[in-house]
Amino acid sequence: MLREAGEAAAVVRLQRKRNADALRELGGRLRSDRPRAVVTLARGSSDHAATFARDLIERRAAVLTSSLSPSIASIYGATPDLTGMMALVISQSGRSPDLLTAAEQARAKGALLVAMVNDEESPIAAMADITLPLAAGPERSVAASKSFIASLAAILDLIAAWTEDAAINSVLSKLPEKLNQAWALDWTPALRPLASASEMYVIARGHGFAIAQEAALKLKETCGIHAEAFSGAEVRHGPMALLRPGFPVLLFGQSDESLDGLSELAATMAARGAEVISAGLANGPGIRLPVVHADPLIAPILQIVSFYRLANALALGRGLDPDRPPHLAKVTETR
Q1: Which of 72, 101, 88, 68 shows the shortest CA–CA distance to 333?
Q2: Cβ distance 324 to 312 under 8 Å?
Q3: How many angstroms separate the CA atoms of 223 and 284, rounded?
Q4: Which of 5, 27, 145, 246 counts the highest number of beta carbons within 10 A?
Q5: What is the rounded CA–CA span in Å between residue 204 and residue 255?
Q6: Rounded to an integer, what distance in angstroms lies between the CA atom of residue 318 and that of residue 311?
């Protein structure tokens, strides 16, 4: 996990170069035949990338985007009419049976099938109308890292090609260098409050919520901590009741319209006794983790690569093997 997460910058650089032609083709197609909606198909870390896509496609391309549960097709044998829509399937392996069934049915029901997949020889890559390889190379740790970051970069590249937004391209051109900077940051101050934690919250807003979901999953699978991800708004609707002195809360923030609300939430939680740890909240209470100054579009991507290094160290400190979580396999045979 440690080695693979550290390869993220090189992966993004290679991926952007390899996918340039396919993205130009896809961008032109989406502009000339604008989809009436986008549906995403994914599981696990890839589904967190789909959360990232949903937020940014709706904000930047102004097209309604929703997650389509693979089980609707794989278990219940039903797929809605997707005529005039784009189905975006995101997968590391491209081989999970439920995703294969759902992707096949989405295409049969009229969707333009776009696949972001790491295994270019996979059935989903062969099935798609347009395939955007993640180009992450072999990922042997059960816990995905570089393929997740590659998915986020590919999503931003897709939106840039679709909307012809030169500003996104400019931001993405700086991503590999900034990923290397973020990888070098020291997040070890978070080890002490998390060393013996059994449960915690991970919180963010906007497209950063995808990072909270991913961090919570990694804390579960590599560190044995029951971590739950919430948006900064949703956590106020019930989950706040569980706060007690010493309860760990990890907040991720990017410098956009969501930041003030997250900063206020961090202060409220600290006042109620929570052990607050934050990245991207400049004046937040508790432990403030260092971040690389960057455009808010890519700030969450930089924060998750720093987090992967923390998760690896935390797992080892708790006597666990981050590469081989119990009861898990690299390709999940979900049906």
Answers
A1: 101
A2: no
A3: 25
A4: 145
A5: 12
A6: 10
User: Which residues have a Cβ under 8 Å from the Cβ of 335 and sit 6 or more positions away?
Assistant: 74, 75, 97, 98
Cα angle 75, 69, 59; round to 5: 170
Which pair of structure tokens corresponds to residue 75?
A: 């278990």
> Which three-class secondary structure state does DSSP give residue 41?
strand
Helices then strands, each counted (H, E), the chain: 13, 10
Global pTM value: 0.95
Query: Is 14 strand, coil or helix?
Result: helix
CA distances from 322 to 142, 195, 202, 309 (A): 8, 15, 19, 11
The predicted-structure confidence for 262-304, as pLDDT tens digits, reads as follows: 999 999 999 999 999 999 998 889 999 999 999 999 999 999 9
To which residue do tokens 């986008």 refer?
38
Tokens in use for 206? Answer: 């906007």
Q: Which two tokens stand for residue 204?
A: 């963010």
The tens digit of pLDDT for each residue in 41-71 reads 999 999 999 999 999 999 999 999 999 998 8
